[in-house]
Design goal:
The complex is a heterodimer of chains A (about 230) and B (about 425). Chain A is built from nine helices and twelve strands. By secondary structure, chain A is an alpha/beta fold. The two termini of chain A are about 25 Å apart. With about 425 residues, chain B is of the alpha+beta class. In chain B, the strands form three sheets. Chain B has a five-stranded antiparallel sheet with strand order 2-1-5-4-3. In chain B, strand 1 and strand 2 form a beta hairpin. In chain B, helix 5 runs parallel beside helix 9. The longest helix of chain B is centred in the first third of the chain and has 54 residues. Classes of the chains: A alpha/beta (about 230), B alpha+beta (about 425).
Chain lengths: ~230, ~425
């Protein structure tokens, strides 16, 4: 993907640039809000990665200006400002995700991928049945079926599987799952995600004898599609 | 049912402007009544005086006539009476027939003829050779009194009604301004420091109060902005070096095909530092009170499904059971996410430091969390809720020592009391109660 990175820190900036380039992205890095404004309005990017506390024009005001100018490129805030109000502020200014420093690179990658995907055929999003491989989820009736057999899932397991099925092949980090499925914007430290993933696997994989949800050490989980 | 009828009046009575209006109306009413009584008394006295004077003249002219021609003039109507009793023949009553007893005492008095309703004002005078009785019907005075009373009554009613309307209108005006100030203060207390109460003009004391409140709010708002800017800087200055540190270690880790044990260990420890740090910042954020503005009303028992679905599997995976009970109760004001976080911390502690089943009771106005562990010694109970304090026996285990500090901060934010104690059934274990 083509990425615009606004980060003025002398250590983090180059680290981000290097890591993202090595992951296969084309990265333009700028160190001030004004430069970012110029770049974002002159070129097309897939995702904007913005630090908030930067010189000349802070990340939040920059994004507000871009949204005013009808630039709808997905934007991810990468910032030390981590309070609930800061997060709400960022999302209300037009941000699509908000990641607080310090963070793991895998977390950034997972969220980038979630933001940068091309919108799938809207029919799939709008329909009430989600299908990936041989599993289907009826979103209205809250029922799951695999290879024609019903799979009995409780509400949290259903939401968890739905989160995986909406992003097949893309790593979902624990933080992402906690936010989406349990509405938790904090780290509960108990093994909520692990426990529920293992229960989900017991219901969706074991009777069929295969592996659908793969653990990626240090990163998260991913629904493998063939 | 009676109390619901009384309720609106009770509410009205609690408004100072309404009380003032009622006091004024009552006072005005009393003044009117006193004036009325006084005027009536005065008028009556004057009229009485003139009637009595007329009676004197009537008596004299009757006597003169008796003296001159021995007759008593027949009264033309039954509003007057005149009678003479000569001393020579005391059984004779010449003129209007009145009972003899009437002549016995001299002076003014009232007399009601037998079988009639109206009374007479009567004057008995003794002249040398006879006694004269004259009387005038009080009917006239009665009529005057009735007219006056009727007139005053209507004046009283209309004046009082008009006064009530005016007083309440004025009261409403003042009350509306007081309520505006109250509303503004409620908003400010809830954290909306951009609220301004004053309307600009400073005409009276209420306006001046509003203006003073606004000045205080502006100062508070500025102070908070400064604090906010400072804490943003602090967050940035603390988080950025940690982020750099982690980035360097992560580069080292991912760049090499066989990262050294030291690097892996260092990365792990850095993450522990970051976790502790984030937890500390979160506690500080809760303690600052700013999250109060996001409070909602909900009943504690509504958390039951969420908690059951989220934590029961985690508890069961360790081979134990979660006994969850909900008791219905009135809604509380609070932040759902924070309360779930509070419970998460309690679960974390119980799972990490105890072995037995876990009990949780939600509602009606409290959260009760019970485990079967070793409990917390009485002497340490007030210290474990301090940040970073860990019991000796727990010091080697994973954990930040901040879980209970966060529980305390969240309880404080909700104005709830936090109690650590023994199990109520006497068995070994800890009881944590958050009482709203």
């Amino acid at each position: 993907m083509r990425l615009l990175v606004l980060e003025d820190d002398a250590t983090l900036g180059p680290w981000l640039e290097k890591g993202l380039s090595e992951a296969g992205h084309v990265v333009d890095r700028v160190t001030s809000g004004r430069d970012a404004l110029v770049a974002a309005t002159s070129y097309d990017y897939d995702v904007l990665i913005l630090d908030r506390m930067v010189p000349e024009l802070d990340g939040l005001s920059l994004l507000k200006a871009l949204r005013q100018a009808k630039i709808t490129t997905p934007a991810l805030f990468l910032t030390a400002l981590g309070e609930v109000e800061d997060r709400v502020e960022g999302l209300e200014a037009g941000g699509d995700d908000y990641l607080v420093k310090p963070f793991a690179f895998t977390e950034l990658t997972a969220r980038l991928n979630a933001l940068g995907r091309r919108p799938q055929a809207t029919a799939a999003d709008a329909s009430s049945v989600l299908r990936v491989g041989d599993i289907s989820l009826d979103l209205h009736k809250r029922k799951c079926e695999r290879r024609g057999q019903p799979v009995d899932l409780n509400p949290k397991e259903f939401l968890l599987l739905e989160a995986f099925m909406r992003a097949p092949g893309r790593i979902q980090t624990k933080t992402m799952l906690l936010e989406r499925v349990w509405n938790m914007n904090f780290d509960p430290t108990t093994s909520i995600v692990e426990t529920h993933v293992s229960r989900l696997r017991a219901k969706v994989e074991r009777p069929f004898g295969d592996r659908l949800i793969r653990t990626v050490r240090g990163a998260g989980y991913v629904l493998d599609v063939d | 049912m009676f109390s619901t009828l009384i309720e609106p009046f009770h509410l009205l009575w609690r408004q100072s402007a309404v009380r003032l209006a009622v006091q004024l109306i009552v006072g005005f009413g009393l003044v009117l009544l006193i004036g009325w009584a006084a005027l009536l008394w005065f008028v009556e006295r004057e009229l009485r005086g003139s009637v009595d004077q007329e009676l004197q003249q009537f008596a004299e002219s009757a006597y003169l006539r008796w003296q001159s021609n021995g007759t008593v003039a027949e009264p033309s109507d039954d509003e007057r009476l005149v009678a003479v009793v000569p001393k020579s023949d005391e059984h004779a009553v010449i003129g209007t027939s009145v009972p003899r007893q009437l002549f016995e005492t001299e002076g003014f008095r009232y007399w009601v003829p037998a079988g009639e309703d109206d009374r007479f004002r009567v004057l008995v005078r003794e002249f040398g050779d006879s006694s004269v009785v004259v009387g005038l019907s009080d009917e006239r005075l009665e009529e005057v009194r009735e007219i006056l009373n009727s007139g005053f009554f209507w004046m009283f009613v209309i004046a009082l009604a008009a006064m009530s309307v005016l007083a309440f209108a004025a009261a409403r005006g003042t009350q509306a301004r007081i309520q505006e100030i109250e509303r503004g203060l409620d908003l400010i207390a809830a954290g909306q420091y951009n609220t301004r109460i004053s309307r600009g003009a400073e005409r009276d004391d209420l306006d001046r109060v509003a203006a003073s409140i606004d000045h205080a709010t502006i100062r508070t708002e500025r102070l908070l902005e400064q604090l906010s800017a400072q804490s943003a800087n602090i967050a940035h200055d603390l988080r950025t070096p940690l982020a750099r540190l982690r980035a360097k270690l992560e580069s080292e880790f991912s760049d090499s095909s066989a990262p050294s044990e030291n690097v892996i260990e260092a990365l792990g420890q850095t993450d522990r530092i970051i976790d502790t740090f984030n937890a500390l910042l979160r506690i500080a954020a809760v303690e600052s009170g700013s999250r109060r503005s996001g409070f909602n009303k909900f009943a504690l028992e509504q958390l039951v499904d969420e908690i059951m679905a989220t934590f029961a599997p985690v508890v069961e995976d360790t081979g134990r059971e979660l006994h969850l009970r909900a008791i219905s109760g009135p809604p509380i004001e609070g932040d759902r996410e924070l309360l779930v976080q509070l419970l998460g911390n309690l679960f974390q502690n119980a799972l990490r430091h105890t072995d037995g089943d876990i009990e949780l009771i939600l509602g009606p106005d409290r959260i009760e969390f019970l485990d079967f562990g070793p409990g917390i010694p009485v002497a340490e109970r007030h210290r474990v809720i301090e940040p970073l304090y860990r019991l000796d026996r727990a010091r080697q285990s994973v954990g930040t020592g901040l879980g209970l500090a966060m529980v305390r901060a969240i309880a404080d934010l909700h104005d709830a009391a936090l109690e650590l104690g023994d199990r109520p059934d006497g068995r070994s274990g800890l009881s944590v109660v958050v009482q709203f």
